Amino acid sequence: MEQLISEIEAYARAVERTPQAVLRAAIDAGGREWESWKAGRSSPTLARVDRLRAFMAAHPPETEDAA
After folding, report:
1. Measured between alpha carbons, how far is residue 35 from residues 39, 48, 63 in Å?
2. What is the reported pTM?
3. Which residues contact 12 (CB under 8 A, 6 or more apart)?
4. How far is CA 29 from CA 3, 24, 36, 48, in A?
5. Mapping DSSP to helix (H, G, I), strand (E, B) and coil, where does residue 28 land?
6. Quick one: which of 17, 23, 24, 6 has its CA closest to 61?
7. According to a count of CB atoms within 10 Å of the terminal CB, is the N or C end of the chain lower?
8. Alpha-carbon distance 52 to 24, whole Å?
9. Between helices 19-27 and 46-58, what is the axis angle to 10°?
10. Element housing 44 (H / E)
11. pLDDT greater than 80 at residue 22
């Protein structure tokens, strides 16, 4: 879970969004879900993790070369 949280935080920084906004766009997660994951009160299903990672892969951060 720690690795997933790190991945989401890094991606969110790279795309200049909050982790909550990334979760909302990727898996239609509610606003409190991120905090619940970070606090260890809940965790996503593997299907949701797969959808989240697929979203991040399909929407990579823009690079300086692409601009």
Report:
1. 6, 16, 29
2. 0.89
3. 18, 19, 21, 22
4. 19, 5, 11, 10
5. coil
6. 17
7. C
8. 10
9. 100
10. none
11. yes
- Rounding to the nearest 10 degrees, give the CA dihedral for residues 19, 59, 56, 12: -20
Per-residue pLDDT at 38: 94
pLDDT-derived band at 14, boundaries 50, 70, 90 = very high
Which two three-digit tokens encode residue 10?
A: 């890094």
| Tokens encoding 62 | 């823009």
CB contact at 8 A, 8 and 23? yes
What is the phi/psi pair of residue 16, to 5°?
55, 50
Place of tokens 């200049």: 16
